[in-house]
Amino acid sequence: ISRADLDLVRAFPKGFLWGAATASYQIEGAIKEDGRGPSIWDEFSATPGKVFQGHTGEVATDHYHRVPEDIVLMKELGLSAYRFSIAWPRVLPQGRGAINAAGLDFYERLVDELLAHGIAPFVTLYHWDLPLSLHKVGGWTNRDTAYAFADYADIVTKRLGDRVANWITLNEPWCSAYLGYGCGIHAPGIQDRQAAFVAGHHLLLAHGLALPRMRANIKSVAQVGLSLNFTPTYASDEREETKRDTELTDLFVNQWFISPIAHGRYPEGLFEALEVTPPPMQDGDLELIGAPIDFLGVNNYTRDVIRGGTIPARPDESVKVGPVPGACYTEMGWEIHPQSFNELLLRLYHEYGMQALYITENGAAFKDTWNGDGVVHDPRRIAYIQEYLQAAAEAVEQGVPLRGYFTWSLLDNFEWAEGYSKRFGIVYVDYQTQRRIIKDSGHWYKALLSAHRDASTL
Ligand code: GBH
Questions:
Q1: CA–CA separation, 401 vs 429, rounded Å?
Q2: DSSP state of 228
Q3: Pocket of ligand 1 from Cβ distances under 6 Å
């Protein structure tokens, strides 16, 4: 570990949580086992042309059968926290109604094993795997799905609320709403701008309805929040139309969900900018949605640079500029820009008044290879995490109440529409054998975490 890394860890307070994140459909596999019902991602990935080379989550990283081994890996890495998601269709195969005991048992064993190893569980209730039966009756465009989610949240926290303190209702509802219903690149693959905003409202409502019911079930000091994705937007030039389109993109990409959560209202001009009518709402919805959360989970990977005046100029269409001269990109084609991460954290604190923040996802995909020698060199991932942590450290020094950092991801996994073609793990997975190999970035992360522990005990 370098001198610079030692300085880096000193910026993070004692008790700061260091973790890694995953999601059920991306790692579990075993989609037909022990009574799990089908999800929209089973159907979507089985539909030709939707996912890279027809990849599916049928086996994924086989985590469902490898929990003990994977927890040993986390322990080896020295993680103080682990963020994972619960597959709703394992708990409620039809989305509502009959509970599948084996599903709850699986997550209870996972939680108990984490606790036995001194790793704090951060549980996400919804990371995109909606039970297919709920989709058949409209999915997130149906208001009833929000009530079904609240019942599901109640069931899970009744079972695990005596030992899990940290909960995330939804992961990136923007993606569920827009990628799922607006442009259709994610399940359920619907292309309907208007439907995206209806779905978005019901996702927010689901969060709002679940919040008080979860808190009632959590025994220790409840920490309930949600994780939102942010992609800060920057203007590529000084022109008026560039300024306008940059603001419109920000409205759509960054403000759509945080504004109702933080302020109890949709941001002004959102629906007009996207040329949709406001979603149907009932009295009291925005109060539920805007109820205080205990923390905000921040997922950030990159920024967007916008060139205005592109026709058509609706912010969900292509107004991004091509490669920024001199910039570096990951395998996803996402620009590496730590400064925007720093500014995002400051904004969430100052403009949105978030009093506790966790980075619940940050990481990078690169072309990692393994030659059979048990070593994976990924210097660019180390540099990425280092630079983003440096930006986070500066935010902490500037007063941002940052409580923890989870890198995406613990393991290489099923990267949604990209299938297995993109590797985000700090641990490599050889999909032929399911062997796990800690990448150089994993070894580096481990050293960093242990340096932070040492610095904290001084
Ligand atoms: C996260 O989403 C997910 O939570 C996680 O499951 C996933 O594996 C990880 O990141 C890596 O991708 O409008 O098509 O240009 C990613 C957040 C937000 C990033 C939307 C891409 C623009 C998509 N994403 N963003 S698009």
A1: 34
A2: E
A3: 23, 171-172, 175, 185, 229, 231, 299, 301, 361, 408, 415, 424
What pTM was estimated for this model as a whole? 0.97
Q: Answer yes or no: is pLDDT of 316 > 80.
A: no
For helices 67-77 and 101-116, angle between their N-to-C axes, nearest 10 degrees = 30
Dihedral angle at the C-alpha atoms of 430, 433, 438, 441, nearest 10 degrees?
10
Q: Would the annotation count 88 as a binding residue?
A: no
Place 318 in a pLDDT band, splitting at 50, 70 and 90: low
Residue 350 marked in a binding site:
no
Distance CA 119, CA 326 (A): 40
Whether the link from the prior residue into 38 is cis, omega within 30° of 0, is no
Residues noted as catalytic: 172, 361
Interval 179-226: pLDDT, tens = 999 999 999 999 999 999 999 999 999 999 999 999 999 998 989 999
Within 13 A of 283's CA, how many CA atoms are on the CB side?
A: 0
Strand residue runs (E) in 154-266 = 166-171, 223-230, 233-235
In angstroms, the CA 13 to CA 456 distance is 8
Torsion of CA 347, 351, 352, 358, to 10 degrees: 20
pLDDT tier, 458 (very low <50, low <70, confident <90, very high otherwise): low
The pLDDT tens digits of the residues spanning 332-361 come to: 999 999 999 999 999 999 999 999 999 999
Distance, CA of 188 to CA of 128 (rounded, Å):
10
